[in-house]
Fold this sequence. Notes:
15 helices, three-stranded mixed sheet, alpha/beta, 333 residues
Amino acid sequence: MWPVMRLCVRMATSNGRSGITRQLCSNMDQSQDGKSNPKTEQQDNKPEEPSILVETEGNITMIGLNKPHKRNAIDAEMGQQLTAAIEAFEQDSTATVAILHGIGGSFCSGYDLSELANPEVKPQSVILQRGGVMGPTRRNFKKPMICAISGYCVAGGMELALMCDLRVMEELAVMGFYNRRFGVPLVDGGSVRLPALIGISRAMDLILTGRGVRAKEALEMGLVNRVVAVGTGLGQAYNLAMSIAKYPQACLNHDRNSMYYATYQAKTIEDAMEYEKLTANEELLKEAVYGAEQFQKGVGKGGKFHDIKKKPLPEWEKEELAHELNEAPTSKK
């Protein structure tokens, strides 16, 4: 699935190729004599794919926004599905890091305005949803989440990206609060998280003007953490997730939570310091003692970051090692 996904992203986001992609799609739908393609008719009868696709690869969970015909715009139902997917990741003891990404060339174009324009929908009921409009945007998560940004990451989609801990942006992608043009307010944490990330002056610029930000500028202002080639966003986000997942997780999440508390909740620096100290519980200290013992054995010395995590041996290798130990001659006293 990964090669196909990357190919789709490249086709949809490369400069000047969007027209070619549309032309290829239209050529598939119709034969040269203008008759409909029976394969296309069969595809139309297929059941609709879910709006949220979840995949797991080891201890990494990938959550995909899957509404490419609307650039992954999120309506209320899709927001609830995203909330359920993230909560399932948080409750999964085998999952350590999640990646949020968009399928079909764009990350997310924001809230589906066609739903807001529906006269039967009450705007207040949408905005006042407890968890958030776009998903669980009004709280911090229990474990790290990385956002892989491709194509458009705008309006509420940008708020989703800000909701994540880290952001990996493809070089031709664009971010911005495009909702400014239509008078749609930020209600999913955009005006709260952005000043904390890049400072109030730069945040005011982006929020008041609604202008788009390209990858180079986004990296320079600290809005994103990595800029990568077109079509490699998900793969590079996965590599970043793996580099985080290899560490002792109790310590990692303690430090992560302490940073969020100091940034958003602490009343004073003394309050933040006290929180950092008191949340270093017994489980965390056991992990630290084990790490110190490993260091004494030579693991990680010289600033090395590889081979710091035990790798499970396959059964055949365990049997081979046991056989070698049994065959080894005992030393004479």
